[in-house]
Amino acid sequence: SPSARPFSTMATATAGSPRASTQVASPVESSPGDQANFDSSPVGGLPEEPVKSSVSPQPSPSWREPAGGAPTPPADVSVDLNGNGATPPMSPGGANEQPMSPSARSTYSQGTHGASFSRDPPPQGIMAKTMAKMSAATNRMINSVQTYRAKAAARAQGGKLLLQQLQDESGAKDPSLVPGIMVTPPPDPRYATPTLSQSLKWKAFGAPGPIDPATGRVEIPDPIAAKASVWYKMKGARRRTSQQMAVKVGKAQKHHDEDFELLWAGVQRQELLLNKIKADGKRLADAIKMQADAAKSMASHIASLAETSVELPEGPEAEARRQVVERAGQLMEIMDVMDQDVRPACLEQLSNSVNKPVGQLCEEFPAYQQCVDKRTHYMLDMDAYERKLQKARQFSKDPAKVPHREEQFTKAQRRYTYFSDKLVEDLTLLDANRYELAGFLIEGFVEMQEFQSQRQKDVLAGLSSNKLPPKE
Predict the structure, then answer these.
(1) Residue 367's closest CA among 146, 149, 168, 154?
(2) pTM above 0.85?
(3) What pLDDT is recorded for position 465?
(4) How far, in Å, CA of 179 to CA of 197, rounded?
(5) In the chain, what is the straight-line distance between the N-terminal and C-terminal CA atoms, in Å?
(6) SS (H, E, C) 293-359
(7) Which 3 state secondary structure label does DSSP give 397?
(8) Is 79 helix (H, G, I), strand (E, B) or coil?
(9) 94: which residues sit within 8 A by CB, 6+ positions away?
(10) 386: helix, coil or strand?
(11) pLDDT digits (tens, 9 = 90+) for 29-54
(12) Could you tell me what percent of the chain has a pLDDT over 90?
């Protein structure tokens, strides 16, 4: 039977026939049914069309050429290594089932290769959009915090430089005005014996040097190094804290300077008002933009009422309608001019007259806070040494201790006076400058308002000439 013939042929080839290799390599030729199934010739005896071979000129080394001759590709699609594009799927016999049209070949090639895939991002879900918004908000917050920190650091550095300049001009750093570096002379054994704390201190850090007979003080080897030491800063912090605690418990009186407090409050108020003016200028610029956008949108909606796609007939009523349509077109032209010319000019005038000068003043406003804090420290030192002087006068048995406390108090008082006078002088000039500054900002603001009003009046003059007649 035809179905059993291939098996008999293969069995004969296996038995050792000289043509075994040829028969095994081409099983299709041994089966009429298979040959009919895989025959690529058209039905009805029509002439066969020439079939293009899909074999690449440079086949892959993994291809094997059977004894029949034509190579068989390892997959359904073979790709030309010379860049000629992909070929359509092959039949088991090694030939195309049907030639492909150019459009089909292009579509097949695009589907095979990913070069023409859409590069648009895939659609995001609600969670992805929410995370993106949160990430953007977080980045904006981080940037604002970094900007604030940078401005604060720059302001602190400016305040430090201003304090150094003020100390140099007032002489507050002169060792002759620093009472904290003075060494307390040892007690005279004829009047007082060293206390336990003094003995431990001398044992740990060494006993004070000898007293100069001419001055009655213990000489300091290096005043600058003593002032820069950590021990000096620790003693100063302890002394000021003790004075503040004494004021709180009522053992000492607080030094009040109402004139300085009023002056400093005026300077702080000036800086606060400048910051508020800066914020108001930004709000005014945003309001001008919003007002222009709202006016243009409102005019557009009003003009839309007069739009029509039907030709108006002749007559008095139609003529009145045409006037309304022309008037609407004129209104939109004027609003375009207002949006494109008047608004940018007004914003630029506001920026040059008010916003930029105020912003620069806010950034360059002197940072006197560190100077005021240093003045407070000098005042606490003066009050602390005055309290120690009173205590020495009342309870000290050593007569040499009172002159030492008097000298400390004198130095502290002179340092505070010199520094405070210089600071008051600078703050007075800064406070008096606010009147000149206010006059400059007033004129700039009025100029901006006049400029805006005049430009709007000039542009709107065209609308006032062709007003519609009043309705009877």
Answers:
(1) 154
(2) no
(3) 67
(4) 21
(5) 111
(6) HHHHHHHHHHHHCCCCCCCCCCCHHHHHHHHHHHHHHHHHHHHHHHHHHHHHHHHHHHHHHHHHHHH
(7) coil
(8) strand
(9) 70, 71, 72
(10) helix
(11) 444 444 444 444 444 444 444 444 44
(12) 34
